[in-house]
Design goal:
Arc Repressor Mutant, subunit A; 39% helix; disordered N terminus; Rossmann fold; 6-stranded parallel beta sheet; elongated; alpha/beta
Length: 372
C-alpha cells in the first residue's frame, strides 16, 4: 500500500476507507484474500487505530469485507480487474541503452525479450537510469506500461518504490532477498561445481579461483551489488570445503592497461602450484590469457588448464584459444522474463519471492587438459 498522508477537507474515517479501497483494488485482491491487520493499516495510513476501526466498520456494512474472530478481515467481493493485457512492456535497466547491445550477454537477453514480445505483439519501452531523464518515477512507468522487466542489479530500495505501485514485475539477471518478486538468474552454483568437476576429472588436484577485484561502490543510489559473482565465489568455497581442500581465491585488480596478474603469478610460483584454474567469467578469462602469455612462460593448457564459469557465444574466442566455459542460455532468460510477466498480468496477484535458475551448455574449447 502506498503511504499517503491525510488530505485536507476529508474526514479521517472517510479518507481511511478510501485508501483501504484503493489498496484492495491496486493489490489485485480477490474474494477470500486477507487484508492487513488494523494496526498495520493504521501504521501505513498514518492514522489512529480508532479511525481504521471505524473505516473498516463502514466497509463491513457495505459488504465489501467480512471479519472472522481471531483471524482478521477478509475481502468479501472483488474490486477492479482480475487481469490485464500485456500490450506495453517497460524495460528498466541500470545502464545506458547502448550498453544493452554492446555487452554480449545483455544483448542475448534483449534478443529473447524482443522475440517473445513480437510473438505477443507487445511493445517494449526502455527506461534507463543513465539516460538524460535522470531519476525515473515509478508513476511514469506505471502510466505507460502494463508490466515491467528489470534487467540487472537495481537497488532493492528503488525496486520497492515500483512494487508499491502494484505493477506486475519480473527481475532478470539479479536476485534480492528483500522483495517478493519473480527472479530469473544464472544457475551459478551448478556451473561452478561443473567447472571444478571437469578439472578434477583431469587429475588437477590443486585448483585456484580467479575473480576481478571489486572497485569502490558507485555512488549512484539505484545500483546494487552483483549477486551472480558472490554466488559463484560462495559455491567455489563450498566445493573446496567438501573436498577438504585449501584452494586459494585470487582477486585481480585493474591496471592502467589491462589487468594486474601479479597476485596470480605469486600463487602459481608457490610450492603447491595450482594446475587448474576456474575463472568467474569469460570476459576476465580473455584478458587473463593475454596477460599470462605476455608476462610468463606458462602455456594453456600444457602448464595450466582453464575453465570459465559462464559466458556467451561471442565472448569465448581469443587469439589462439577457444575458452572452455558454460554458455548460459541468456536468450531463454529473456523469453522467460516476458512469459513470467504475462502470467503476472493475467493474475494481478501478489506473489512470494521466487528464484528461477536458467541453465547453461558446456563448451569444452581447448583450454582444458590433463594435469601436467
Amino acid at each position: 500500500m502506498r503511504l499517503i498522508a491525510g488530505q485536507r477537507g476529508i474526514n479521517p474515517r472517510t479518507y481511511a476507507a478510501q485508501q483501504i479501497r484503493k489498496h484492495i483494488e491496486t493489490a489485485g485482491l480477490r474474494a477470500g484474500d486477507p487484508l492487513p491487520s488494523y494496526r498495520e493499516l493504521a501504521r501505513r495510513l498514518k492514522v489512529s487505530l480508532m479511525t481504521v476501526e471505524r473505516a473498516m466498520d463502514d466497509l463491513l456494512r457495505e459488504g465489501l469485507i467480512t471479519c472472522v474472530d481471531r483471524k482478521g478481515a477478509f475481502l468479501a467481493r472483488q474490486l477492479g480487474p482480475a487481469a490485464r493485457e500485456l500490450h506495453t512492456i517497460g524495460l528498466l535497466c541500470g545502464s545506458s541503452r547502448s550498453s544493452l547491445v554492446a555487452t554480449p550477454y545483455r544483448s542475448e537477453i534483449l534478443r529473447g525479450l524482443f522475440d517473445k514480445a513480437d510473438r505477443l505483439k507487445a511493445d517494449i519501452k526502455i527506461f534507463s537510469f543513465r539516460s538524460e531523464q535522470g531519476h525515473i518515477k515509478p508513476t511514469d512507468v506505471v502510466r505507460e506500461c502494463d508490466g515491467v522487466v528489470v534487467l540487472g542489479a537495481i537497488h532493492p530500495d528503488v525496486l520497492a518504490s515500483f512494487v508499491k505501485e502494484h505493477i506486475p514485475m519480473v527481475v532478470a539477471d539479479y536476485a534480492t532477498e528483500s522483495l517478493p518478486l519473480h527472479h530469473l538468474v544464472c544457475d551459478n552454483a551448478a556451473m561452478v561445481r561443473s567447472s571444478v568437476a571437469r578439472l578434477l576429472a583431469d587429475r588437477h588436484e590443486q585448483v585456484v579461483y580467479v575473480r576481478a577485484k571489486s572497485g569502490p561502490q558507485e555512488s549512484a543510489f539505484w545500483l546494487a551489488a552483483d549477486s551472480d559473482h558472490q554466488e559463484r565465489l560462495e559455491a567455489f568455497q563450498a566445493v573446496a570445503l567438501e573436498h577438504n581442500a585449501d584452494w586459494p581465491v585470487v582477486e585481480l585488480p585493474k591496471a592502467e592497461r589491462g589487468m594486474d596478474i601479479g597476485p596470480l603469478v605469486e600463487v602459481l610460483a608457490g610450492k603447491r602450484r595450482p594446475t587448474g584454474m576456474v575463472v568467474e567469467q569469460t570476459g576476465l578469462a580473455d584478458g587473463l590469457l593475454h596477460e599470462l602469455e605476455a608476462q610468463t612462460r606458462l602455456q594453456v593448457p600444457r602448464d595450466l588448464s582453464l575453465v570459465a564459469v559462464a559466458g556467451t557465444r561471442r565472448e569465448n574466442v581469443v587469439p589462439g584459444h577457444v575458452i572452455a566455459h558454460h554458455e548460459v542460455r541468456f536468450h531463454e532468460m529473456g523469453i522467460r522474463a516476458v512469459e513470467c510477466l504475462q502470467q503476472r498480468c493475467r493474475s494481478l496477484r501478489p506473489i512470494r519471492r521466487t528464484i528461477e535458475r536458467i541453465g547453461a551448455d558446456f563448451c569444452a574449447g581447448d583450454t582444458l587438459g590433463a594435469a601436467p
